[in-house]
Design brief:
The chain is α+β, with helices and mostly antiparallel strands and 531 residues long. Helices cover 59% and strands 11% of the residues. The chain contains 18 helices and 9 strands. The strands form 3 sheets. The protein has a 4-stranded antiparallel β-sheet, with helices on one face. The protein has a 3-stranded mixed β-sheet with strand order 1-4-5. Helix 9 (319-343) crosses helix 14 (437-462) and helix 13 (411-430) runs antiparallel to helix 16 (501-507).
C-alpha cells in the first residue's frame, strides 16, 4: 500500500493540532457532547478543500493522499486524542468507502471514489441490522432483481432495516449490504433516493456528537450499475477483506482517546496536593491508576504498528491480528478511562474535567466493529485452527522469535510461555473442551496479551520509534510480559489443565521471581510519567 512522505504526514498532524486549538477546544467538545447533535459545520469544514482531511483515506489514483495503514493508524490515534466522536465520524467515511475500495469495478471507483475525494462526501456503511449485529451473515435486507423485457437485470429493489449506522442521518452516499439471489451484496445508494429514510438521531451514552441512526429501506430502486463489483454474492467477502484493517483503526482510536484521559490524570497528579505532597508522589496513585494503563497503551501501540507494517508489506488483510489489536486496545482504553475518573476523585465525575466524557466515549469501542466477545471468539477459534494446521508451528515460531530478545526483555520467559500456550491448545483439544465458548474466551485471554507482549518487546529491542527513554520502555515491556504470564497461569488453572504438561512448562517461567522486580519497574515507569 502507498505511504505518505514525511512532510505530508507532518502537515496532516499539524492540521489536526490547529483544528483542535481553534475549533475543537475543550469548551466546544463539552458543548457538542451536551447538545448531542452532529456538528455539521465542523465536519463540512474538515471535508472542505481548505482542510480535506478525508483525502488521507483515498488512493492517489482517485485524487487522495494514499496513506498506508501505519499513517492512518497514527492519524486515527491523534484524531481520537482530540475527540472520539469526531474521529468516529471520519473513520465512518473510510469504512463506508471500503466496499468500493476493495470490491468495485474500475468504472465504479472512478465514479464514486473520485466524487468522495473532490466533493468531500460523507459516507455511511449500512450493514448492522436490528437482529443482525456482529453476525453479518444474519442480515435480512433483501435486494430483488428487476428485469427488462428480455430477462436482463436492469435494477434492484431493496427492502429492509439498518440499525446503529454511523453517519446514517447525514451521509451523502451509502454502501448498503443486502441479500440478492446469489447472496449478500453491497449496493451504492445516493442520499434522497426515494424510499431511503434515515430515522432519528440516537440519544447515546457517549460519542454523542457522532451521528448514529436507523435507516428504513422501503422499495429503494437502484440501477444494476450500483451493485458493487457488478457480481452478486460478494458482500461478505468484501466485508471480511477490510475487517483486519478497520479493526486496527478502531484499536488506534482506543489508544488515542485513552491516552488523552491518562495524560489528564498525569497532569492532575502534579498539581493536586493531598496530605502534604502531590498525588504524583504517592504509589497508591501512580502504581494503581497510571502505570498499568501507560504500559498497556504503549504495548497496544506497538502491536498496532507491527500489524500495520505487515499489512503494508504484504497487502494482506490480517483479520485475526486485527481482532487481537481491537480486543486488547479497546479493553485497555476502557480500563484506562475508568481509572482516569478515579484519579481525579470527585472532580473526575464532573463534566468540566472531560475524563467522564472520555469514559463514556470509549465504551463504544468495545462494541462497534465487532464486540469484544466476538473478537475473543475469532481469536480463539482461528488461533487454535492455525496451531493445529501447523502442528504447533505457528506459536512455535513466536517462541523462537522471543529467544532472540535477551533476558533484559524476558525473552526466554516469553518463549516458554508460547510453548505453554501451544501445549494448552492441544490439551484443550485432547480433553474435548473446545465446545465450551467460555473456555475459548479464556484461551483468547491467554493468547492476546502474550502476542501483544512479544510485539512490544521486539519494538523495544529494535529501538524502533521509541516515544520515551529506552529504560522506561524496557521496564514497561517487562511489566506487560509479566501481566501476560500471570493471565496465562491463571487461565490454565481456570480451565483445569495446569496439572498437565502445560503446568510443567509454566513452572519454568518463574513468575514469583519476576514479581520481585515488578515494583522496581513500576517505580521507573512512574518516575518518567510524572517527571
Amino acid at each position: 500500500m502507498a505511504k505518505l512522505d514525511k512532510d505530508t504526514f507532518s502537515m496532516i498532524l499539524n492540521t489536526i493540532d490547529k483544528l483542535e486549538k481553534e475549533r475543537v477546544t475543550p469548551e466546544k467538545r463539552r458543548e457538542m457532547d451536551k447538545i448531542g447533535e452532529f456538528p455539521h459545520d465542523l465536519i463540512r469544514f474538515m471535508l472542505s478543500p481548505e482542510v480535506a482531511l478525508h483525502l488521507i483515506f483515498i488512493p492517489e489514483e482517485y485524487g487522495g493522499l494514499g496513506a498506508g495503514p501505519t499513517e492512518v493508524a497514527k492519524i486515527s490515534e491523534r484524531m481520537a486524542r482530540m475527540d472520539l466522536a469526531v474521529a468516529t465520524s471520519f473513520l465512518g467515511i473510510c469504512l463506508g468507502m471500503d466496499p468500493l475500495r476493495v470490491g468495485a469495478t474500475r468504472e465504479q471507483k472512478e465514479r464514486y471514489i473520485k466524487r468522495i475525494a473532490e466533493e468531500g462526501l460523507i459516507v455511511a456503511y449500512g450493514v448492522t441490522e436490528p437482529n443482525a449485529g456482529s453476525n453479518v451473515q444474519a442480515i435480512q435486507t433483501k435486494a430483488e432483481r428487476i428485469n427488462d423485457g428480455r430477462g436482463q437485470v436492469v435494477s434492484y429493489r431493496l427492502n429492509g432495516q439498518k440499525q446503529f449506522i454511523t453517519n446514517g442521518g447525514v451521509a451523502d452516499l451509502y454502501t448498503i449490504l443486502a441479500n440478492t439471489p446469489e447472496g449478500p451484496s453491497f449496493f451504492v445508494v445516493e442520499r434522497n433516493t426515494p424510499g431511503l429514510n434515515p430515522g432519528r438521531h440516537e440519544d447515546k451514552h457517549g460519542i454523542r456528537a457522532s451521528d448514529t441512526c436507523p435507516i428504513s429501506i422501503e422499495d429503494v430502486i437502484v440501477p444494476r450499475e450500483n451493485l458493487i463489483g457488478e457480481v452478486e454474492g460478494q458482500g461478505l467477502k468484501q466485508a471480511n477483506q477490510v475487517f483486519g484493517y478497520t479493526r486496527l483503526m478502531v484499536a488506534s482510536l482506543g489508544i488515542g482517546a485513552a491516552s488523552s484521559a491518562l495524560q489528564k490524570a498525569i497532569d492532575y497528579s502534579k498539581v493536586r496536593v493531598q496530605f502534604g505532597s502531590p498525588l504524583s508522589h504517592k504509589q497508591g496513585y501512580t502504581h494503581k491508576l497510571l502505570v498499568p494503563h501507560a504500559v498497556r497503551l504503549e504495548a497496544a501501540r506497538a502491536f498496532v504498528e507491527e500489524v500495520a507494517q505487515r499489512i503494508e508489506e504484504t497487502n494482506t488483510d490480517l483479520q485475526v491480528e486485527g481482532s487481537v489489536a481491537k480486543y486488547f486496545s479497546t479493553e485497555a482504553a476502557d480500563m484506562a478511562a475508568n481509572d482516569s475518573i478515579q484519579a481525579f476523585g470527585g472532580y473526575g465525575y464532573m463534566r468540566e474535567y472531560e475524563v467522564e466524557k472520555i469514559k463514556r466515549d470509549v465504551k463504544i469501542l468495545t462494541i462497534y466493529e465487532g464486540t469484544s466477545e466476538i473478537q475473543r471468539n475469532i481469536i480463539s477459534v482461528f488461533r487454535m485452527r492455525e496451531a493445529v494446521r501447523t502442528k504447533g508451528g505457528f506459536y512455535g515460531a513466536m517462541a523462537a522469535e522471543a529467544q532472540d530478545l535477551g533476558e533484559e526483555l524476558l525473552g526466554s520467559q516469553i518463549s516458554l510461555a508460547f510453548e505453554a500456550l501451544n501445549e494448552a491448545i492441544f490439551e484443550i483439544r485432547r480433553q474435548k473442551l473446545s465446545s465450551s465458548q467460555y473456555i475459548l474466551f479464556l484461551l483468547a485471554d491467554m493468547a492476546t496479551p502474550l502476542e501483544v507482549s512479544l510485539s512490544f518487546a521486539k519494538k523495544v529491542k529494535a529501538e524502533r520509534d521509541l516515544t520515551r527513554p529506552k529504560e522506561y520502555m524496557e521496564a514497561s515491556s517487562r511489566l506487560m510480559t509479566l501481566e501476560a504470564l500471570e493471565k496465562l497461569l491463571l487461565n490454565t488453572m481456570r480451565i483445569g489443565i495446569y496439572d498437565t504438561p502445560v503446568g510443567k512448562l509454566l513452572d519454568q517461567v518463574q513468575i514469583p521471581r519476576l514479581m520481585k522486580s515488578a515494583i522496581q519497574d513500576m517505580d521507573s515507569v512512574a518516575k518518567e510519567l510524572v517527571k
